[in-house]
Amino acid sequence: MTEEEGARQSPDASSDKKAFGKDVGKLVSGTVVAQVVGILIYPILTRIFDPEIYGIASLFLSIVSVIVVISCLRYEVAILLPKDDKDASSLFFASFIILIAICVVCIPIILIFGKPIVDILNAPELINYLWILPLFVFIDGAYMILRYWNTRRIRFGMQAISQASQSVTGSGLKVGLGLLGNISPAALIYGQLFGNITGIALLLYQLIKKDVSTLYNGFSIKNIWGQISRYKKFPLIDTWANLFNVISWQVPIFMLSAFFSPVVSGLYAMGFAIIQMPMSLIGGSLGQVYYQRGSIAFKNNKLAPLLEDMVQLLLMLSIIPIVLLLILGEGLFGFVFGNQWAEAGVYCQILAVWAFIWFLSSTTGSNTLNIIEKQEYLLKFSIFNLISRVLALSIGGYYQNIYLALWLFTLFGIIAYGYVLYVIFVHTNASYRKILIESKYQIIFAIVVALVFIGLQSVFKVNIIILLILAAIVVIGYYLHLYHHNPKIRAYLPFS
Asked: Which of 211, 231, 251 is the last residue of a domain?
């Protein structure tokens, strides 16, 4: 038995926190590079491209995201589940066959409905870029398939390299094109495409080098159809749940552009990207490894402790940055990205509490429901989430009040993601009281930090630069203290 097979099959792997930390570390190393590049590049991009240009590029990428989520009918997620690599290989081929079919179908849809779509979105310039959409969908869909295959093979190192290369090459091209005078959505769109191609090339190289024989054994039309039938819940339920979920994520960009303008859409997209960036630094990698380890833990009736650890970990890691963003958002964005982006910071302040609940839920929610095969709850959640967001943004759009739209968006989001947390805790018998008790000192500290910074900003009128320096000191000090004094952090995270 190979090391990879042992890690996938051994019951001890589900409770081995150090092994979990090593896998997270490999993914985080790539994510760190990607996020650091993003952090460094955003202040440059925001001074080259204005909110309207950023908004049009965000509209295009949002359309791509909606199509990509159904591009394999979610069979790529099922690649992790079979015990036999032959069955997983059949799911690999099934995913690619479906992906190609979806990309082909996109072509006549664009030709027929492209113009009406851009008119509805209030972004006529978008029509110039729709022709490249099928290629974008294929590249992103193929990357998903290869990423899940590599996760199954427990090759997190190459995924880290691919993440880093995507960010470095994509961001570099965006800046380069902008500095050369191509100040248009094309620079942002083509830069993103080039970065994605770089990432997929690396994963494809490793697959060709190591997995050709394994995949060849699974290339059987009969077995492909058999696996399609075996995991039919994924296209019948999980696809729709994730489609509604992705649409609900992208609908603010679509509706803000339609009701207000691409400028407002660009401000929201930038604000959301900055919220998402630090959270995905650890959360995305934890979630990917959690899904792989959780699948094993569930078979051994050990999922609840793993879930409790993950939620507590996410709470401790996110609570201080969220509190500081809630208080300093407008000043932070104005100072770092330029005054024309300060409004995006106000949007972040409104969305901060929702972002905290979302972070706790997103890493564990859908992964847990997929592991325990309760995808019907995902569908219910996704439908409610989409309807509530459309309602919130419609009310704000009707009254032409962006702040009303975002406050309603936050309220409904807290309800929706709180429901997901409640469901997974009930079905795994996990204890939220245990998490709150074990995190009480971090929660108390967050309250103290909030009160201090509110006083410094509102009562003593301290300069924003000084506040941001103090905030950075607090965050760094908090994480250092957390790492050195919390055994659970040291057990699950690899930085030692």
From this structure: 231
pLDDT tens by residue, 308-355: 999 999 999 999 999 999 999 999 999 999 999 999 999 999 999 999
**Does residue 243 lie within any of the structural domains?**
no
Q: Answer yes or no: is 129 within a domain.
A: yes
**Residue 48 in contact with residue 178, Cβ under 8 Å?**
yes
Which residue bears the tokens 């792997």?
Answer: 13
Place of tokens 């203290």: 481
Label residue 83 by pLDDT band (50, 70, 90): confident
The answer to whether position 258 is within a domain reads no
Please calculate the CA angle 352-314-292 and round it to the nearest 5 degrees.
Answer: 125
CA proximity to 151, closest of 139, 138, 163, 136: 163
Q: Give residue 379's pLDDT.
A: 79
Tokens of 400: 């032409």
Containing H/E element for 455?
none
pLDDT tens by residue, 240-260:
878 887 898 899 999 999 999
Task: Quick: pLDDT tens for 194-243.
Answer: 999 999 999 999 899 999 988 988 788 999 999 999 999 899 888 887 88
User: Does residue 325 sit in the same domain as residue 194?
Assistant: no
My answer on whether 274 and 388 are in the same domain is: yes
Give yes or no: residues 307 and 227 share one domain. Answer: no
Q: How many CB atoms lie within 10 A of CB 452?
A: 13
pLDDT tens for 124-164 read 999 999 999 999 999 999 999 999 998 888 887 777 888 88
CA distance 79 to 218: 12
Same domain, 201 and 318: no
Instruction: Establish if 283 belongs to a structural domain.
Output: yes
The amino acid that residue 195 corresponds to is: G
Look at the chain and report how many structural domains it folds into.
2
Tokens 């969305």 belong to residue: 351
Domain with 295 in it: 264-496
371 in the same domain as 283: yes
Cβ-Cβ contacts under 8 Å for 94 (sequence gap 6 or more): 75, 224, 227, 228
- Structure tokens that stand for 55 in this block: 């908004």
Burial of residue 40, with CB atoms counted within 10 A of its CB: 0-12 exposed, 13-18 middle, 19 or more buried: exposed
Q: Which helix (H) or strand (E) holds 359?
A: helix 342-371
Same domain membership, residue 270 and residue 211: no
Angle at 418 between CA 342 and CA 318, to 5 degrees: 50
Q: Could you tell me which residues come within 8 angstroms of residue 238 by beta carbon, excluding any fewer than 6 positions away?
A: 74, 77, 370, 375, 378
Cα 399 from Cα 401, distance rounded (Å): 5
Are the beta carbons of 474 and 449 closer than 8 angstroms?
yes
Residue 16 binned pLDDT confidence (cut-offs 50, 70, 90):
low
CA distance 155 to 330: 40
